[in-house]
Every structure is written in structure tokens, then in C-alpha cells.
Amino acid sequence: MNDQVKNYGLEEAIAAVAARGTIREIYFVACGGSYALLQEGQYVVDREAKSIASYGYSSAEFLSRAPVRLGKDSLVITCSHSGNTPETVAATEYARKAGALTISLTNLADSPLDKATENTVFYEWDPLAVTSKHNSVMLLLLVFGILDKLEGNSKYALVSKAVPALHDMGEKLKEKYAAAASEFGESHKREPVIYTMASGSNHSTAYAFAICLLQEMQWVHSACIHSGEYFHGPFEITDFDTPIIILKGLGNARKMDERALAFAEKYSKRLTVLDAEDFGLEAIAGEAAEYLTPIMFNLVLRVYAVELSDSRGHPLTVRRYMWRMEY
Amino acid sequence: MNDQVKNYGLEEAIAAVAARGTIREIYFVACGGSYALLQEGQYVVDREAKSIASYGYSSAEFLSRAPVRLGKDSLVITCSHSGNTPETVAATEYARKAGALTISLTNLADSPLDKATENTVFYEWDPLAVTSKHNSVMLLLLVFGILDKLEGNSKYALVSKAVPALHDMGEKLKEKYAAAASEFGESHKREPVIYTMASGSNHSTAYAFAICLLQEMQWVHSACIHSGEYFHGPFEITDFDTPIIILKGLGNARKMDERALAFAEKYSKRLTVLDAEDFGLEAIAGEAAEYLTPIMFNLVLRVYAVELSDSRGHPLTVRRYMWRMEY
């Protein structure tokens, strides 16, 4: 165990998948912010895998669906920061019992999740700094490592090569967006509702900001709108005073974000636009850049959340229910 | 074409799948309300299929992801009520070009979607009545018909047998909920935000009510919360005056809804609870009942939406952007 902690378990987990022989499908299963994180991995498999199916579920939904297919050709990747989210531990145990191979990401060794799973990948997580052991980084290395091992995937090398540059890029971005974030906090401190919008690799980032940062940590009403779905219902809510945070991604999905932004700009004066093209990811990761955008969006959005919480006098650490009672 | 219109194309579509031989995966692809509808089918495959993978995508996201796996062993089911949703027509053409078998649901013969697809299944749709050709009914018969043909599925017979009873059940439910719906409309007419919450087969119903009925047709802020995810962020938004419409489903998922409701009841005085156990579906469909719950929830929720729109003096037909301009 100690050795595994030391090297974070990444290589062992990838080797366990390779040793398994046939993996026909990968399930990404977690709750809340960890679920949003894993969807970054599910997106990679969805876009890149030549023959492997992939699914994303909130842990309770996974247990409820109890897919008949689940078995020895399945890989189930779960995640819990504390390692003690009951639904995620239960999902991991359920998957293992069904014969699936299990890999779990967590920050905490010897946690219930670490004990329930066959292969643990440990990560570090500082919401305001990207290290080479950052949760999203470890997830990307795991998923691309698996794809490369099972099917061959040239983007594994691109991602690996980009990792060392991420920390400094993040530090620069925090500086770059500091003034805009402060302005956002002040100008949005009385908003009762703030929407987020994104697509592709960043949809789960926008989802996490809506449910974890705004609803959970700020008690501000929010919903994540998919940039493509925007035109099929949600756009009717757009008005001059409707606040929407729009993430412009890279790759194929960018077109969806651009179209949504072009429309929203005409009818709302309360847009906050963050553009992944301003991050510099294409220079360090080439064709794999779109998979790294959530890392930088999460970092920059955290700076915005900190400023909003300061302006509102409502610390991000305050909870009224979570961890404070049985539920 | 005329013959196909006459018999709605259902048997032909199922036969086309059977004739195909190998179907390894089914994609459910549409926009907005049609996307929500198709997710009812995706849920069935997810729960029931022994070896077939299934995915749900908004049409633009499907085109953007451009899954490498898509090919001759894939079935792509698309849907557009008018048959002229550009992204869905494009998704159908894309899938067909990739070698996938295509089946499309629509209300309109000779529409662009009808022309783009290989197999059309026509449906009827009255938001306030469930006929045996209702969109959800046709979708369920299609999906269970396919599963039964490819893998054998005993619930196809259960669903088929239940269909003739749905119309009268719907009529009775409209009466049963009339007073409660009217009270909901009056008591919620000044709410700026109304949440919906559900899980399992009804999650997409709650999603549709949030984005199509509340955001699009009432310009009321809304978000669909997953009952299982509720405890991992969104529940912190719960307060004595937070309005949430909670759908209690059947089957495995019911536990998630019950847990969320038990918590929400403690802290909000503004809950609206609709319980599928009050519909009588188990008596007519047995173990397949959970798959029919969206049909009745959609109907009852429509009655609630009509009452809300009456109380607000904001007809459900009003749009400020949709169909009124280029976007």
C-alpha cells in the first residue's frame, strides 16, 4: 500500500486493465463534483475509443439501473475525494461483485473507497493550483493510458508531454483573470440566479460550477445549460438581465458554444464569457488540447467563485446541511 | 410511403433492425423535448439490454462528438416532431453516411427528417391525451420490439398489453389532478424559480418540464435536479420557500426519489409531489410499469403547466425567439 501511495497507483491501474485482456465498456461512476470530474474521462473515451463503449452515471443512478451488461468485460472507474461517499463505495462494491474490474480515484489512502476497490489512483487537489498530480490530470493520464494500452492512442503522448507545463499556465491564468473575476463578484453579488453554459468536454465543468459552487457553496439558484440544447427551450429565458457564464471550448464543440454566445449576446447584457483559446493549451497539447480545457476552466472559475463569495460575504466553506447532519 | 404512414412504420422499423443482423449499440439522438422523449428509450435499453450498448445525445453534441465507433453495427434513433429540426436531420444524415442503420420518429410525413432517414416511425401527439399512437407509446413499442427481436425480452408483451388501457387512465388522471393543478398554478404564479427533481425513467421528464415548459413556455427560471445528485450539491439551495416539483417513480429508482423527498420535506414548505404509485400502472403493466411512468407524468405535468400559464396570463404558445427569427 505504501509503495502504491508513493507512486499514486497510476501505472499499476493501467497495467491491471492491460492484464485483464478484454475490456468492452467503461463506466464512470461518482457523485456531485467527482461525477463532473469523471465525465471529463467519459468524454475522452466517447470521442477517442475505437471499440470501447463508455457511460457516465451518478453513483445512486448506477446502482438503481443495475445494467445487465455489467460483468467481467467491464471496467468501472469511480471517484470520491474523501473516499467515503457511501453511494460511490456501494457502487464500487456492486461493480466488483458483478465481476467488473474496478479502479477508484481518491485523495485519501485507507478510506472506505480505497478498501472497496481493486486499484486505487491517488491524486492531489488544490482548487487554486494545478499540480502534475491534480485530480483531472491523473484522470486524463489514466484514461488515455488505458486507451493507448488497449487500442493505441497517439494523444496519450500529447497529454503526458503537456502535463509539466500546466502548473505555470494555471498561475499565469489566475493573474490574467484576477481583475475580471473581481469585477464579476461585485457585479453579480445580488443576482438570485446565475446560469452556466457549455458543451463538449466542458459541459461537466459548467455543471459542477452550477451545482457545487453556486447552489451548494453560495446558495445561488443555478442551472447548467448545454450550448446545443440552448436553442431548444432554454434560450427563451434569455433577457437583458439574465446572467449566463458561457465557456467557449476547443475542438468540434466550439461551434456550439459560438452559436449560443452569438445569440445570447444579442439579448442579454449580463454575459460572462471565458474562452479556452485564451489559455494557450493548443500550443502545449496540440490536438489533445480540448481534453485539457476543463482543468483551466475549473481553475479560472474557482477564482470567480472566490471573488463572488467575498463580495457576498458568504464563504465557500459554509454549509447548512452537508456534513452537518444525517441524510 | 402511404402504406407506411397508414401503419405508422413500426413493424417495418423493427423488421429492418432484425434484418440487419448485428446491432452492437443504439444511439438516441434529438433536441430539446424530443431528446427528453428519446431518453425514455435509452433508459429501457440501459436497464434491459443483455449486450447492446446505448447512448443519449443532443443532436449537436452527437455531431460534435462524432464517435469513432459509429458504423454498420450501430442503430441511430432520432426524433423531431416537425421533422425539420436542422441538427437532428444533419445527425441522421451523418449516421447514415457512417453506415449506421437509422430509424426516425416524427409527426410529419415527407418532412426533411422523413426523407433523410431509412425507416420512419410516425406518431400522434396531443399533450393532453394519451392515444395508442402517442409519441412515448410508439417509442416504447419500438425499443422493446427491437430488444425482443434481438435478445428476447418478456416486457415487450407487458408493454403491448398495457397500451390500450393508457388512454382511459390518462383521462382519469387529468380529472384526479385537476384541483391540485389549479391550486399549484395560483400558488406558484409569482415564483421566479421552480425546480424539478426526479431520477431513473423520469429524469428526462423532469428535464423536459424544466427546459420546455418552465424556461421556454413560461420564462420561469428552472433546473432539473437528479434525486441522487441532490445530496451532492443542489440540496444546499433548499429553503422554506424553494419550490421543487418532485416526481416519485417506480422500480429501483423510487428509493432515490423517496430519500430526496424525505430530506426536502424537512426544509421546504413549497414542494409539489407527484407519485407514480397513484397512477395504477403496476396493475396494467406489472414489472414494465416503471417504463410507462413518464407517459403519465408528462400528461399530469401538462395539466399543471396549463394551470400555471392561466394563472400567469402567459399562454404556453407564446415565444419571443423560437420560430420567430433566424438563430
UniProtKB/TrEMBL annotation, chains A, B:
One of its GO terms (molecular function) is glutamine-fructose-6-phosphate transaminase (isomerizing) activity. The keyword Transferase applies. Transmembrane segments: none annotated. The keyword Transferase applies. SUPFAM superfamilies: SIS domain. Keywords: Aminotransferase, Transferase. This is Fructoselysine 6-phosphate deglycase. It comes from Cohaesibacter marisflavi.
